[in-house]
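Before a colleague's protein record goes any further, I have to sign it off. I want your independent view on whether this chain really folds as the tokens say. The record follows directly below this note.
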Amino acid sequence: MNTWLKFGSGLATGALLWMVFPEAMLGKVGRFDPPDLQIDESPLEEPIKAATSFASVVKTASPCVVSIQTVQERSSAAGSMDLDAFRRFFDPEGRFPMPEERDLPAQGTGSGVIVSSDGFILTNFHVVEGTQSISVVLADGTTSLDAEIVGADKHSDLAVLKVERKGLSAITLGNSDHLEVGDVVLALGSPFGLSQSVTMGIVSATGRAQIGMMDIENFIQTDASINPGNSGGALIDAQGRLIGINTMIMSRSGGNQGIGFAIPVNMARSVMDQMVEYGDVQRGLLGISMQELTESMAKGFGLDSTEGVLVGDVTPEGPAEAGGVIPGDVVVTYDEKPISDMNALKLMVVETRPGSAVALGVIRNGASQVLKVTIGALPEEGYAGLLGGLGRMRPPLEDKRQTWIEGLDVAPMSSSLRQRYGIPESVDGLLITRIEPSSFAHDQGLREGQVILEINQQPVAQLSDLDEVGALTSGQSSLLRIWSSGSARFMVVERP
């Protein structure tokens, strides 16, 4: 009670002071001279504007970016799942009737880029997937045009649309191969339905792959703000040229967190050209399993550099085998273009039209040579192999074993082993029948069910072949060729 009274007294006293001495509390209201303001309402000087503003670039590019509105039939099955959950918790006896399931129209939004004045538009596959109708809203916000799908490719997440309109504002296509980390880029699109939105950032990385979102990955990473609705929109450089198609973000919240990805315009152009000319996209097949060339592997092959891609295995009767490629070759060029890593070679191959002849530069036994290979066609089931796969677990066996290095048992191939482990007749070597957990062999990456084909480029098929290899002692390493999960690869076992 006393506390309340003191608090109340304080309030009353403060109010009294304000009433009696208002000028002391707030100052003299309305008795000041006007402020001395410095005003300059002229436009930015051209040198300053040119150095700090991208307004002219946006004015050129923005008319080429459109909003895409789609309609598709959506089953209310997802909604019925929610109703089922409601019934389980609140109506377990089923006393109340549930609404009948019906198909409801679903609307979607995205972005697109006009790439030719006669109405061709680039966008994402996922923007138009499963749609019944597509409308393209031009930059003026009032003109809506019906669009048809010229082609759609889920593997690259690209689609080409066509509207019947001439004289459209078309964007200029740049060369995404010239992009460097740190370059300024602008993202244009319709995030959350807000058309003609522009954000700015830099190129955070190029050639970003192994994200696991698509079969073919070669992304431009940027911190330009990209949000839902930006999909299919333009990523432009500081000159307003199209260098990418905004595709997706990496986010824990669903909103932008500074990691966005765009498909390089060079890839988009290649896909679009095939769609327009052929109506579909056909991709190339080389017929090899690839490995990164590590320093230890390069040393095992007697090479001074890790540049290139190691051929772990060759598909029987495939394009590479027909062209003379053998396991152990190191691919360093593809049609005279240098090969930096596995992803670079994959992209070059899949972007090659089947039936095309290419020059494959390889290093074999320390000597360089050029092989002519006619590229095959990648089948639909071949896309999964672009992202790699997992091996299969096999049960232990009680067959003849012999210890080669600690933690590892091997056995010569037999019909029972082939049947048990699913090893084809064409594979010949020593089967790993046991691996001790946390052993040296396990730490080196060897696993049960693998077949050792070669040790230091010498075939091994019998236990006696190991006598020439000898024990692996401290400071030594061995170059192995291993068959596993349908293909062969090289690896290095190194004793510290």
User: Anything to note?
Assistant: The domain at 402-494 is CATH 2.30.42.10 (Pdz3 Domain). The first strand starts at residue 65 and ends at 75. The radius of gyration is 33 Å.
